[in-house]
Amino acid sequence: MKKTGLLALIVVLAFTLVTAGCGGTTQKAAAPKDAVAADIKAIKDRGVLKAGVKVDVPKFGYKDPQNGKVEGFEIDLTKAIAKKILGDETKIDVQGVTAKTRGPLLDNGEVDMVIATFTITEERKQTYNFSDPYFIDGVGLLVKKASGISNLKGLDGKKIGVAQSATSKKAVQEEADKVGAKVTFLEFGTYPEIKAALDSGRVDAFSVDTAILFGYLDDSTTILSERFSPQQYGVATKKSNTALAKLVNDTLSDMKKSGELDKLIQKWGLK
Amino acid sequence: MSGPFAGFKWLALAQDWSVFAEGFLTTIIVSILGLALALALGVIFGVIGSAPSKICQLVNRCYVEFIQNTPLVIQVFFLYHGLPHLGIMLPVFSVGVLGVGFYHGAYIAEIIRAGIQAVPRGQMDAAQSQGFTFWSAMRYVIVPQAKRIVFPPMTNQAVSLIKNTSVMAMVAGGDLMYYADSWASTNLHYGPAYVVTGLLYLAICYPLAAYARRLERRMEVSL
Fold first, then answer.
1. Nearest-CA distance from B173 to chain A in Å?
2. Looking at this predicted complex, what is its ipTM?
3. Looking at the complex, does the CB of residue B82 fall below 8 Å from at least one CB of chain A?
4. Domain presence at residue B1
5. Which CATH class, in words, describes the domain spanning A38-134+234-267?
6. How confident is the model at residue A70 (pLDDT cuts 50, 70, 90)?
7. Which one, A59, A81, A265, B182, has least CB within 10 Å?
């Protein structure tokens, strides 16, 4: 009895495999007509675009604690790209990433693309595909009002908190060298930790891209008027997914031409 | 070649080895000082915990239960972000030493208390009948015998302590893990960075663990 059961199972399995194989061949035969690249096809087959976004940066990608929805400028961009690939802007699956996790998540295929205030640098281009910039922002400094610091020069001998994997450290260092201010940097994993460090006096300034800083502005703090080294944000994709990178870039440049991108920037009050 | 372990990323790491060396040195110094503190606290609270006085036992329980039942991360966050609000600004280096020192001190206290209680009761009775006070019996009779029993688990605590210094990375502590995070997140070469960091921890922890195993084997023979 047992043996027959096993035999039946094997037969069923074999049958499934053969039919599945057949299905595959027919599909393959039909494929050349559309000539869809493997990376885009994978997204189409899945029926959903997986994107890594920020969930702690108001206006860009922020998870509203009231309703649990992630919203922002970069989420809208993700929707536009999903519409281009899948024809439906609601077919997105967004996942919160931090500066530290976005690289590994792209590499292991957990997300198709990362659109999370990701600054384009030459060094990073070696590892990932970056689209043309969709937003340009300067690095700013958030300080306590009580500290009386009014410019970068005032930060001479002080400590500045920056986020790991952020380009702000390099940007501020260069500017500080120019004005002759000696500063040291402390790196933290997330933005709220830097804010906590600013509150407790562990650091004298919180430095990151200005649009992000606005999310942490409160009664006791102020953003200095200086802006350093414009940071260009791009959409990152895995190095091997070249077709997807091209599609993303085309979508963005279309949006730029049609003025849709500017509309979105205005919608979120980023300019 | 691309991917997390591409060749050029390893070359970049080889060039920046001094970054990792600096963090490694901090990790070692914090580990040594933290271990010294943990041993001191462990011996004091371990002996207090096995004293007959109820108050002594209560003090031991308070310390051990409080430390063992809260995460090390929270304790370090409190030392780093919390104390400044109370007007105490400890340098991050001390935060690391105090953090792992107090945390492992509680575990070592329990090991020592167990070691003392493993010495047969008759030893204490015999010592006291010879005119030893409780504390001098402890010092000259009980602790020397307990020492042999507690050595192997103590070495394991040393290994855990070294690994736990990596929480300093969360408070910009300048230890090995912090520099690995910092370096890897700037250039995104996280593959080689964490492999090398893991190997460096292994290089200090494995010899200690092997030593503990040898001690354990010797114990079995001698008992």
1. 8
2. 0.74
3. yes
4. no
5. alpha beta
6. very high
7. A265
